[in-house]
Please model this.
Amino acid sequence: LPELPEAETVRSDLARVYQGDRLARISVTGRRTVRRHRPELLRTLEGLTLTGVGRHGKYLLLQWEGGPVMVAHLRMSGQLLSAQAGDPVALHTHAVLRFAHAGELRFVDPRTFGELFIAAPGPGLGSGPAPVANAAPGRGGGGPNLTGLAHLGPDALSIGAPDLHAALAGRRAPLKALLVDQRVLAGVGNIYADEICFEARLRPHRAAGSLARAEVTRLAASTRSVLAAAIVARGSTLADNGYQDLSGRPGSFQLQHQVYARAGLPCGRCGRPVQRIIFGARRAYFCPHCQR
Ligand SMILES: [Zn+2]
Model:
């Protein structure tokens, strides 16, 4: 399912295709896709120009003229796909945004866990446009000041060692459990947590608080570098084809996975077999020789 690199790929695609264009009409047919508020509320965006597309963790933040923000989360199987007005409508299309010039943006989601909603600025923000740009490095954590997103930790793509150290210090939970906890770090899921732990040479089931300062520094650097490399490769598309970019094309970072779903295959660093481990309700793939 989509994690930060996939969301970032869709974000840049959305900005390239629709930014600066005006929303002519929005139609919502999937009641579950817009479940946080009345679906009709989305129609208040009609006539407005898309002024920017931000992202925090796995959340996409479409910013409109005058300040409103529409949040999109793909969850398990959601896809945002570009289309032209006459194109056949795919099964499981739950919302269609028709732009004045760039054609349609369609939200397709077979499993219906994904969602769209309008987020209002949280208390204390004042009346200006919401600050929805990606979290700045060293910002000290926390999600955007928007309804439904304030619980999020700092964005993983720009995580610094001090923030990560503060999040892990004293915690007895397994490292992987915290890396995928969106309140701790926004954007990392099952696939990238394993790849990040491999890159940092740390065992995913180690107690998070047992990491030395140098290890946390390495972990922060690996988090940024693995996610950045995955963005260059336009994300990971697994056998289920669940993730596609705005044009319906797969990503290619799965070809660079070092450990994820590679149990029994040789580790790219030492040649010994990658192992799968189960701890609590969680699974992880790692190399027992290379990761400590
Ligand atoms: Zn190895």
